[in-house]
Design brief:
7 helices, 6-stranded mixed β-sheet, 6 strands, globular, alpha/beta
Length: 144
């Protein structure tokens, strides 16, 4: 999993950002171009990937099994790198289930956690991980 290209920035995308980028044709779909061009190296853990797959199965998205598999096999697997969680975190978010994203970022030595979660965004940084929203990520790379 993951192409062996030189990348500029390791990032963790929370499930909301990842699903929005892949399923909706708005501003966030620009994030797909960043990983396809090798500007960012998206990182996932087993825990974050499991949540992503479960969300794709929500009835509100009306995706068939074949469509889900195509998204995973064509848009995700070739570009994302899996990291093992080695850095467990204390509870950071009001929803402890969301802490898996910061744990993934720390374990992968990711520079950025891209999220829409206000709890994370209010922190701005956790240890070595800068926490930003998707618009900020897109602006960062538009300037390069």
């Amino acid at each position: 999993m993951g192409k062996k290209e030189k990348t500029l920035t390791k990032v963790v995308l929370d499930t909301y950002i990842l699903v929005s980028a892949l399923l909706f044709h708005g501003e966030l779909s620009g994030i797909i171009d960043l990983w396809k061009k090798g500007a960012i190296s998206p990182m996932v853990s087993r825990e974050t990937f499991t949540e992503f797959k479960a969300v794709l199965e929500y009835p509100k998205f009306s995706l068939e099994r074949q469509e889900i598999n195509m998204i995973i096999e064509e848009a995700v697997l070739p570009y994302f790198e899996i990291t093992e969680i080695t850095d467990r975190t204390e509870t950071i978010c009001r929803d402890p289930d969301d802490d898996k994203f910061i744990a993934c970022a720390l374990s992968a030595s990711a520079e950025l956690l891209v999220t829409g979660d206000k709890d994370f965004l209010d922190s701005k940084k956790y240890k070595s991980v800068r926490i930003i929203n998707a618009s900020m990520l897109l602006r960062m790379f538009a300037q390069r």
